[in-house]
Amino acid sequence: DDDAQSQGDRERRRRQHAHAEPRHSSRAHGDMRNATLATCALNQWALDFDGNYERIAQSIALAKAQGARYRVGPELETCGYGCEDHFHERDTETHAWEVIGKLCEDKELMADVAVDVGAPATHRGARYNCRVFIVNGEIVFVRPKRALADDGNYREGRWFVAWTRVNETESFALPTSCAMYARGGDGTVPFGDGALEFDDGSLGSETCEELWTPDAPHISLALNGVDVVSNGSGSHHQLRKLDARMNLIKSASGKAGGVYLYSNQRGCDGGRLYYDGCACVAVNGELVAQGKQFDVSDVEVVTATVDLDEVRSHRGAFQSMSIQASNVPRIPFIRVPFRLCDADSTPSAPTTTRPVRFHIPEEEIALGPACWLWDYLRRSGASGYFLPLSGGADSASTAAIVGNMCQLVTKAANDGDETVARDIRRIAQLSDADPIPSAQKLAELIFTTVYLGTDNSSAETRERATALAKEIGASHLSVVIDVVVAAVVGFFVMVTGKTPKFKVDGGSNAENLALQNIQARVRMVLSFLLAQLLPWVRGKNGFLLVLGSANVDEGLRGYMTKYDCSSADVNPIGGISKSDLRSFLRWGANNLGYPTLALVEEAPPTAELEPIREDYVQTDEEDMGMSYDELGVYGRLRKISRLGPVAMYERLSKVEWKHRNLTPREIAEKVKKFFFFYSCNRHKMTTLTPSYHAENYSPDDNRFDQRPFLYNVRWPWQFRRIDELAAKTEAKR
């Protein structure tokens, strides 16, 4: 359609949409420019167009009820950020614009407010990740993303292209579902890199990744005099990440002055990531409003009243900025008759500054995976969770997270969240007349734990599992599975005529591993059997989701049996290190009401798959040949620092472990041992249970850590070079 327009028609539209310079400087001196603005955190779900529409509409209504004249929402909120290859389907974009059309159709909802929503848009044969600006129910501007996220968990370049024509706009023919809502009535709006100019202020935007880039759009917008910059984001939770994000937000509004609104998704939208909200508003480098980072509510609106004249004053006192602003390339301004400040009411006082609210890592572990599990449970159609509870640190951490999930949702329901209350009653199979249960009672209804013991299990782990399940309120079973293990081993003996033995009884390493693995795999089979049939046994409908509990360090080392209890439906701790989990256990014993967690943390980690003898007790770190703390170091150097075997040896010997009582040859052997086991077990990552992403050195093969799974595990060139360096260093000493 665009190509069919005459050159003269396109030029006329360009002049109409892009001629304006900021005009609010000519206002009367006595006018006050106090604007109430809103940002939000929405729990959107990929391809849930009905639900996404309802949450967007609810956030707009709440923003207006709080006096806001502008509302910004998360990235791609109409369709959900995590659609992935569904973005290649034309339906996804079509339905996203149908959501926008339905919003514009609601005249009462969209009256007297400017709204900024995220949606995909195809323009001249290229698909863009866009912000769509709607004022008084009319679409006025579409702004495509200039810098795409293409690292770590993100693959935006697979589905979108970046807009590279800086400071340029074109005419865009709106999809049929929205053409009638174009300002001007001809079905077209400006599309490209520009900003909106209102009667009393100006508004520009950037999207998620653009905040993190060196040449961030907010700098150019500020130098062009734009008062307010918004950011619709889809940013995931990662332990200890929030301070980096908040520093960027404060810097974005502080370095060049201005108001910065940040919106984000919050929740699990269908994948491994948990988007952690924290919608906020910053003015001239100071935070004035901040939403929750973790919550089970679907919609949160954060508003702040800001003095736009404070922005001008801040910039006016910054002389070097004024000099740069005088010769910066000009961006196109789209003139829209609308006031950010409500002229019909007494201006509210500006919102005062406040400190940033950060959670400690232990709180992040308690809250993030718990909210992720709640979203997964309520959207999966399952009737609860099932966990093989061994009494060890990993499964105890998973159990505590589920217990905290029950605490969070019952509190939200009792505080008046009707959506959470409905979900609780549906999942727990309660009637509308039933009261919201206590957290412990809810755990009894939707959370089953089972201790799957063998002759190799200790009384201590059995007792810890039982005590912890009681504290949480879970429905708990304690069973012995030796009869099943014996039947499988007996079948092998019958077929081969050979009887395998454990190492402590004189068996070979192959026999020892096989006997351990069969116990672990039997536990997996029995777990899925019980999860599928226990609701039926109890006279209920549905099924239970099986929870895994392997930590990120075990995945990195491959210290797990393929297709054992690490093979589950979901794993809330698969992206968390052992050291962080142990800190969480100590914290949870005092703060979650589960004192048994302290006893679990004090016990040495053990798989309990080999027979216990007076002179031998199996432990994880002895089995692995390295400590969990060392694994954390290897993991960060391998992934975050991007070091191969030789570079890792040099970093450890010269920096990280320079003062440890280790010889160069001992460090060399440790590095070689790690890379040997990492590479020979890498195939296990291809079947890794979908895990909550929380750690930047996760070995998740699905997308975050894409590497081969068939290696030359001897690493001959690299290991030979390490040996040469170690020998050279020792010779010098």
List the helices and strands and how they pair.
Elements: H1 7-18, E1 34-42, H2 49-65, E2 70-72, H3 90-105, H4 107-110, E3 114-123, E4 126-135, E5 138-144, E6 169-173, E7 188-192, E8 195-197, E9 202-206, H5 209-212, H6 217-223, E10 228-233, H7 242-254, E11 259-267, E12 275-276, E13 280-283, E14 286-290, E15 299-307, H8 308-316, H9 319-327, E16 333-335, H10 361-380, E17 385-388, H11 393-414, H12 418-428, H13 439-446, E18 447-453, H14 459-472, E19 475-480, H15 482-496, H16 509-537, E20 545-546, H17 552-557, H18 578-591, H19 596-602, H20 620-624, H21 628-640, H22 645-656, H23 664-680, H24 716-732
Parallel strand pairs: 1-2, 1-11, 2-3, 8-16, 9-10, 10-11, 17-18, 17-20, 18-19
Antiparallel strand pairs: 1-15, 3-4, 4-5, 6-7, 8-9, 11-12, 11-13, 13-14
Helix pairs in contact: 2-3, 10-11, 10-18, 11-12, 11-13, 11-14, 11-18, 14-19, 15-16, 18-19, 22-23, 22-24, 23-24
